Amino acid sequence: MSNLSEQIKQNNATAFTHSGKFHADDVFSSALLLYLNPEIRIIRGNKVPEDFDGIVFDIGRGRYDHHQKDSRIRENGIPYAAFGLLWEELGAEILGEELAQKFDESFVQPLDNNDNTGEKNELATLIGNFNPGWDSKSS
Predict the structure, then answer these.
(1) Sign of the torsion angle spanned by Cα atoms 70, 74, 78, 79
(2) pTM
(3) How many whole angstroms separate alpha carbon 50 and alpha carbon 120?
(4) DSSP class per residue in the chain
(5) pLDDT > 80? residue 1
(6) What would the pLDDT profile of 100-109 be if each residue is shown by its tens digit?
(7) Given strand 14-18, what is the order of strands in its sheet?
């Protein structure tokens, strides 16, 4: 079990991601964390609090963020997004090495590619449609 997996499965585990519009990579990252620990608390915000001691993804320029110029790119040229970075560390534990790799190729990589390049992806578009419009009234 990886250190990340142990951290996710702790009682009172917390994670932090960006606020604002959500994308397929942070939605599936959240789903992955919740799959491993349905009690994990996921916080959204504009900036990671300095004293935050949980898992940070898709923000903060850390291990599970992909918004820096030197972000990692797979050997096949597809850049990692947050979901891919988390899946890379957790996938084999969940599905085994061979199935995790197949899932990465068929499901994770297209979402990561969409997040990084805007390449059309129907699932990412459907998820994006749940974001409120710029002119929507908040309740």
Answers:
(1) negative
(2) 0.89
(3) 36
(4) --HHHHHHTSTT-EEEEE-SS--HHHHHHHHHHHHH-TT-EEEEESS--TT--SEEBSSTTSTB---STT--B-TTSPBP-HHHHHHHHHHHHHH-HHHHHHHIIIIIHHHHHHHHH----HHHHHHHTTSPPTTPPP-
(5) no
(6) 999 999 999 9
(7) 41-45, 14-18, 55-56
